[in-house]
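User: I'm putting together a small comparison set for a docking exercise, and I want a reference complex before I start. The sequence is below, and the ligand is tryptophan. Could you produce the 3D structure with the ligand included, as structure tokens?
Assistant: Of course. I'll restate your input first, then give the structure tokens for the complex.
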Amino acid sequence: MENTERKPIVLSAIQPTSVPTLGNYLGALKNWKMMCEDYDCLYAVADLHALTVHPEPAKLRQQTLEMYATLLAVGLDPEKNIVFIQSRVPAHAELAWILDCYTQFGEASRMTQFKEKSAKHADNVNVGLFAYPVLMAADILLYQANFVPVGADQKQHLEIARDIASRFNALRGETFTLPEPFIGKIGARVMSLQDPTQKMSKSDPNPKASISLLDDPDVILKKFKSAVTDSEAVVRYADGKDGINNLMSIYSCCTGLDYAAIEKEFEGKGYGDFKVKVAEAVIEELRPFRDNYKRLMDDKQYLLDTAAQGAEKASRIANRTLTKAKKKVGLLLG
Ligand code: TRP
């Protein structure tokens, strides 16, 4: 992918945590997959970002491999997209240092996520946590990305990436493309099955609240059957019906039906029928993922080889930008 066709460039990344949820899938990963026709896409496993919380080393290695397999298993074709592991492309850490020097202490201090995370983990407020958005800016700017699909919680980080890029460009001359957030077409915000006013999260202590992409079909069915709804017993999308709205949104994402069509399909039927149908649609939607994931995790060598190729392709693009930035700031090149 040398961008000869000049399609807009898309970059996104995901941290190597445990298996993603249905929320991560419908809200992000499914969109990533659909973008490859219209954009030149790069997708990374952000293992360097994960270091900020001091994961156990063996666990980080394993989760990095699992997340890489997850990206391939959701259908990101490594021939059509550049799928790579962040730390395998040294340019990320190198550009991050340069950009650190073009980021103000004050603006980094204002990041909501930094404030939240440092309040939550007061015993480990490391400099990496502080510089987290600068590394993220490097991820994006190295590839001259035009669009970055991100969730609401990462919007502020994208804004600081733009601010850093425009400051650098203004001081040192045009170097970086200013990235824009990409709001997905289907862009579902999947809510907890137990408290539909909260986002579905894999860290939810109640296991019934979220669906993991690797849940067995019977577990998925059980979780949907116990999903919180309301007492109206009419399948319709409306204010105050958060539980049903969430299920309708999930069903819509999996079947492609709009809300009117869903309301029609379940006219005169109870929530019991509806929940089973939603569960079945999700099970079908996730079936190829489960099969692919299992096959990939059984072939570690394939994953390692593909990751090496991804890193090589990414490096070729990243190094062009890195060299440009090094020249602009006055580093002596050979
Ligand atoms: N910080 C992002 C998250 O936690 C992950 C990430 C790292 C990212 N680098 C990125 C997202 C670059 C978009 C672009 O979700």
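The CA atoms of residues 162 and 245 lie 35 Å apart. Residues 11-15, 46, 49, 136, 139-140, 148, 150, 154 surround tryptophan (CB under 6 Å).
User: Thanks, that's exactly what I needed.
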